[in-house]
Backbone:
């Protein structure tokens, strides 16, 4: 196909697919309602999977599930809780780690061939290790039970994904199956990632301590969610653009 | 302390939400709305006299290309209706000789040399060129731009509307295969012009004059005493001066002009920092006047203030992240149910940021650059980089504004008046 001339591409626009937009809105509302009604079941399902991952990772833990919570609805849902004790690292090992990290930082700083972004990222992560050690020395107490709740389960991202797809993808002219597959793929990835993230954070609590848990639980939540939503968005947009070109 | 942090987070989320709504509005209007064509039906039929000012500072590699493009422009050149004013701005390379050579070769090219000016800045060079411009419309092109043959005809068409003070064309990067950074910047440019500027034009808001590939009526520039010679964003400044005096600026999406974008990320950082500082100066100067202006409609005021805050937003975003982490680690939010805080954080990151990215997706779709969409995730790194650079530029501009700038400004106004008086033909 010929490249569009400046005059035509400057003024054309797309005809929104209103029926797809209405369908997308229905899916968003349905997702919201489904989550409000079955949030308890969803959390329990997540808790079982996280527990399996923790067993695989060799993390001793106990899970507390509420028996009366099924179908408890929007605000009455009772979050499952994990009890995980931190592993007590020998003091000699901690000193060795700190010394190794400081040495690594020095080496990274003096190697001239490393590019600045690599240096910055390396020093950033090594600094996190040092903060983690310092935090553990200041707060050696065992953590309170970890709950799979609104904050940790990643549940809020699910209706947001539906909303984002509804506004930005569904009105674009193109195949409905591509849009639905993109939305479903993104939702499944989101569910999978939420389980991996909580498992990773819980395992890091056992092996590395409280600070690493807080870091892994908070920062990936904020940034990784956006990254994969963006990846799915660009994937679907590419498919829709190709569909327009061939159509 | 805790209450202050909570209130600050709420304010930041509200501001980000407002920008999110604005971006989605633009995305929707440009992707699905009826497009305003900026008087393009008058192209060819309306040909006012035009002066083209090109500031050049050490541009020996690109100056001949621009001057050749302007010499072969499809525009009536009889009776002085078309003139090119090449301003050699204290160049130390061969720019000066190139400019003289073209002035000898073409009768409509004028060479202007600035060799010992007290102000060494682009707007000062533009003002120097302006003093030699004789025609009704004055257009500006930077030396590294390549205007196609029909660019001037398309740019002058909106001046059929007597309320139009200025125009702005679309900038399209031409060196995209050179580096990955260039490809990513192409996406950014496409969203900025194809979607953002066009939507603002469609909605009757504030399309921005971008400093090149555009121009003004000479009478308007004379009434404003030219550009502010000390300003780092003289383009934004003149945009607001136009709207605040009751004029309009038209965005002409069809008037494409090609440019070479930077191919190294640190050079881009330097650019953004400079623009950021200049843009923030405009914010300090114009936000209150914009809100109070009796000549602007309500939504134009809202958009005008939000446009002024574009380079303030990185600072707001960084502050939001830092306060969010602080709040998460050290205190529970005062609104107690954590759900609300979580919802705002997620919405802020996902829906808020994707609003901007959806503009890029839409621009790629409208330009039929399908494969470019694959590069969208790379924009995330660029955005994070801009947050750091933009925050730094906000701090720099605030401190400069509060300390030295006001004093300098008074001096500039006096200088500008005497300079223009002295140099006027």
Residues:
């Amino acid at each position: 196909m010929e490249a569009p001339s400046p005059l035509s591409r400057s003024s054309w626009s797309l005809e929104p697919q209103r029926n797809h937009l209405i369908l997308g809105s229905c899916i968003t509302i349905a997702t919201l309602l489904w989550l409000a009604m079955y949030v308890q079941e969803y959390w329990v399902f997540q808790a079982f999977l996280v527990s399996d991952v923790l067993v695989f990772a060799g993390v001793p833990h106990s899970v507390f599930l509420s028996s009366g919570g099924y179908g408890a609805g929007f605000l009455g849902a009772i979050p499952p809780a994990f009890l995980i004790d931190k592993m007590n690292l020998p003091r000699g090992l901690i000193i060795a780690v700190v010394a190794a990290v400081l040495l690594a930082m020095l080496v990274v700083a003096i190697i001239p061939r490393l590019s600045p972004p690599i240096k910055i990222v390396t020093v950033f992560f090594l600094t996190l290790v040092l903060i983690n050690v310092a935090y553990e020395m200041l707060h050696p107490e065992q953590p309170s039970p970890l709950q799979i709740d609104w904050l940790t389960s990643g549940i809020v991202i699910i209706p947001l994904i539906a909303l984002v797809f509804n506004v930005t993808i569904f009105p674009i002219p193109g195949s409905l199956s591509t849009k639905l597959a993109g939305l479903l793929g993104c939702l499944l990835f989101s569910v999978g990632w939420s389980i991996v993230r909580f498992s990773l954070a819980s395992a890091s609590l056992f092996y590395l301590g409280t600070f690493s848990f807080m870091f892994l639980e908070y920062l990936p939540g904020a940034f990784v969610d956006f990254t994969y939503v963006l990846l799915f968005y660009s994937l679907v947009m590419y498919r829709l653009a190709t569909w327009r070109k061939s159509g | 302390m805790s209450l202050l942090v909570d209130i600050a987070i709420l304010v930041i989320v509200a501001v980000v939400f407002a920008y999110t709504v604005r971006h989605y509005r633009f995305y929707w209007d440009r992707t699905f709305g009826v497009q305003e064509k900026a008087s393009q039906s008058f192209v060819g039929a309306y040909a006012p006299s035009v002066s083209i000012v090109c500031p050049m500072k050490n541009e020996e590699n690109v100056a001949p290309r621009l001057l050749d493009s302007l010499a072969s422009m499809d525009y009536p050149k009889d009776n002085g209706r078309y003139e090119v004013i090449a301003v050699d701005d204290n160049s130390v390379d061969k720019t000066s000789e190139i400019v003289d050579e073209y002035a000898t070769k073409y009768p409509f090219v004028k060479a202007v040399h600035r060799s010992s000016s007290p102000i060494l800045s682009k707007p000062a060079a533009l003002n120097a060129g302006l003093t030699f411009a004789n025609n009704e419309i004055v257009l500006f092109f930077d030396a590294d731009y390549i205007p196609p043959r029909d660019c001037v005809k398309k740019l002058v068409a909106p001046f059929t509307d007597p309320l139009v003070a200025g125009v702005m064309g679309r900038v399209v990067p031409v060196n995209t295969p050179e580096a990955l950074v260039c490809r990513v910047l192409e996406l950014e440019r496409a969203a900025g012009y194809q979607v953002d500027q066009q939507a603002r034009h469609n909605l009757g808001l504030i399309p921005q004059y971008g400093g090149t590939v555009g121009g003004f009526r000479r009478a308007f520039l004379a009434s404003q005493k030219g550009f502010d010679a000390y300003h780092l964003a003289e383009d934004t400044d003149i945009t607001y001066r136009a709207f605040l005096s009751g004029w309009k600026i038209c965005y002409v999406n069809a008037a494409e002009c090609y440019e070479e974008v930077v191919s190294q990320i640190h050079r881009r950082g330097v650019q953004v920092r400079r623009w950021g500082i200049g843009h923030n100066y405009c914010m300090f100067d114009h936000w209150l006047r914009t809100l109070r202006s009796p000549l602007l409609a309500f939504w134009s005021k809202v958009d005008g203030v939000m446009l002024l805050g574009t380079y303030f937003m990185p600072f707001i975003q960084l502050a939001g992240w830092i306060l969010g982490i602080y709040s998460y680690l050290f205190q529970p939010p005062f609104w107690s149910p954590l759900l609300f805080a979580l919802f705002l954080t997620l919405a802020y990151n996902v829906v808020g940021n994707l609003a901007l990215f959806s503009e890029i997706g839409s621009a790629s779709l409208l330009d039929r650059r399908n494969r470019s969409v694959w590069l969208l995730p790379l924009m995330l790194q660029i955005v994070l980089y801009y947050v750091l650079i933009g925050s730094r530029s906000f701090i720099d501009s605030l401190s400069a504004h509060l300390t030295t700038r006001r004093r300098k400004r008074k001096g500039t106004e006096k200088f500008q008046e005497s300079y223009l008086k002295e140099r006027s033909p």
